[in-house]
Amino acid sequence: MRAVHFVHQISPSSHLAEHDWRVRVLVVEDDVRMAAALRRGLRAEAIVVDVAGTGDEALRRARTGAFDVVVLDVMLPEVDGFETCRRMRTAGVWVPVIMLTARDAVDDRVRGLDAGADDYLTKPFSLAELLARLRALVRRGPVERPSVLEVGALRLDPATRQAWRGDAEIELSAREFALFEAFMRRPGQVLSHGQLLDAAWDLGYEQRSNVVEVYVRYLRQKIDRPFGVRSLETVRGMGYRLRKDGGIP
What we know:
about 250 residues; alpha/beta; 5-stranded parallel β-sheet; 12 strands; about 35% helix; about 20% strand; disordered N terminus
């Protein structure tokens, strides 16, 4: 059994529920001791707590729409927290999700957020911090944000690092993918040379004057030309823009 990393540093006086209804939280945690500690701490704050021990069980419960927030552990058996969150979003379940993990690597945090999580808390953590994050998410409520970005026939999945036009998968380098993601997140908007450099290159990169132009050309060769369409437009003196319709013949 994994060690429990949970620091209870708050008294039951600072209630999360400031309204007439009871806040309901689904805790997804397979470690029995950790789940029990979370349940006790949250119930002391007048929060209704349900516990699921697997990703599949979490998905079934979350689909009922009965929860205000899901507290989701990454290290689950069979289906991990990343995939569980991704399946929830794919199924149209937009309840806010806080992911819990002992991992503190940037790549893991990015992976969780790309899978559709709203927040990320690294173990060990205090109940006070968890409650503060729960309050923020409850105030905001569910916000629909597709985990797969779609612009016309173009699709991009940040979690799996895959891209498609229609049913055809497009093979992109890491740099091309980062540039494509910047466009996919802002269809119809003109992105400047500087914005595209920030999106796809490190801050310490020695900026060559034509590097963005070169990679936009690479991108066009992969997402447009094989399909006989034009989606990336040059806006002279300003930058580049991805058409809102995903491309025209």
